[in-house]
Design brief:
single chain, 212 residues, alpha+beta, four-stranded antiparallel sheet, 12 strands, 37% strand
Length: 212
């Protein structure tokens, strides 16, 4: 099997109301003319080809008014999920971690001075949920992404029928920081190609890769 097509499309919007239309514009470039439907769980998909996609939107800080970022992961011959989150103070982050994260993930967050630690775990878990077509309320059942030694990994006892490949990115510009995650299931993996569909001042850095 050859290396599969695997992309992340990113775009900066002046208004979050345009996010859905922008996601469709990105998909029309990746997979021109393809019809989009929703499955029984409300997950959109292409019914007539072997390609898959996933979409995530994130509001920008208050000084940008209604601005937003849109992220789209796209694969051909594999299933995908993606999530993007703004790194920010979250008052209930500790309670969320206690409810949904593993003990090793909580230790990782508690033992780090890095404000982005919570969002690294959150986006990894959210990616897996979106890949599987699950609900955010299923997050407590998602495998841990931190091993007992504190390193990143996919700590699952389930027998995976297809390999998984998670890619985590840091996007930064001035005081703005975002964590972006994409996952692909099945196929011959290499890191996704990141494409901007708008002018961007952001530095996009691949910081973590997890294969399972």
């Amino acid at each position: 099997m050859g290396v599969m097509s695997y992309y992340i499309g990113l775009s900066i919007l002046s208004n979050k109301k345009a996010a859905s239309a922008e996601a469709r514009r990105i998909l029309s470039v990746f997979n021109p003319g393809a019809e989009i439907r929703e499955d029984a769980n409300g997950r959109p998909y292409f019914p007539c080809c072997d390609a898959d996609f996933n979409i995530s939107h994130c509001k920008r800080p208050r000084e940008y008014s209604t601005g937003a970022l849109t992220a789209v992961s796209f694969t051909r011959g594999a299933r995908t999920g993606c999530d993007i989150e703004q790194v920010r103070y979250r008052e209930n982050a500790g309670e969320i971690a206690k409810t949904y994260f593993s003990a090793s993930e909580i230790n990782y967050i508690s033992g780090s001075d890095e404000k982005a630690s919570f969002f690294k775990i959150w986006t990894l878990k959210e990616c897996y949920i979106k890949l599987r077509g699950m609900s955010v309320f299923d997050m407590a059942s998602v495998p841990s992404f931190i091993k007992d030694d504190g390193s990143f990994g996919f700590c699952s006892s389930e027998n995976l029928h297809l390999p998984l490949f998670f890619s985590l990115y840091d996007l930064s510009y001035g005081n703005e920081q975002y964590i972006l995650c994409a996952v692909a299931e099945g196929g011959n993996f290499k890191p996704p190609e990141v494409r901007w569909f708008s002018q961007s001042p952001f530095i996009c850095k691949n910081i973590i890769e997890i294969k399972a």
